[in-house]
Specification:
It is built from seven helices and eight strands. The protein is α+β, with helices and mostly antiparallel strands. The site of zinc ion has 8 residues, from loops.
Amino acid sequence: MRLNTEGLIIRESQTGEADRIVTVLTRDHGVVRAFVRGARSVKSKKLSATQLLSYARLSLFMNRDAYTIDEAEPIEVFFKVRGDIVRVSLAMYFCELLAELAPEGDDASEILSLALNSLYLLSGNRLPTQQLKAVFELRLLCLAGYMPNLVACAGCEAYSDEVMQFSPGSGLLWCGKCDPKQPARPVEIGVVTAMRHICYAEPAKLFSFKLSPKGLASLEETVQNYLLTQTQRRYKSLEFYRSVT
Ligand SMILES: [Zn+2]
């Protein structure tokens, strides 16, 4: 079976003398693992198009259970982030999250668009990294089936209060007066508004919001805590990112 699609390389490893195995987030079939055979020549177009953080037009061939990439034509490469330790470690974390949360064998076009837009903004240094990280994490969680319910207080349906309470375990929100009856942390309304924007905005406006440095720090902490609580695992690349920021 042949598969022609576009994909972003989110993991690569060497296998044997000449071959590599890559993990690709494809538009039409989600996360796919594939061999790249004999692409060691530095001049090979296939080599650069199948390196980590390449976005390429791919022709994959499926034989028994394994995919092999026959042809790869680069569309965009996000290698610019490699020059900066903070940005490259955030890009690696994005890749690890994609490998964990994107579907396999299913359409992943929205998640792929989120990944490409995030890497584009990251490589151009166009937004604070805290903001990019929080947007990527929370929007990815929404697309992967972990959308919190931020519409109103789960107790009294109040839309806003100066300080609200958010539960990372249930993804529910309470006003300052209602008792959550489950572990919840205080979150200022400005941060709640930003989280609502990330969950509910149309893709073109996703990254367009502003928060104070204090608000951004709180947004980052709240979203990261939600992600770690919901997915119940550790991310090596996140630990590395946190060690360099
Ligand atoms: Zn309430």
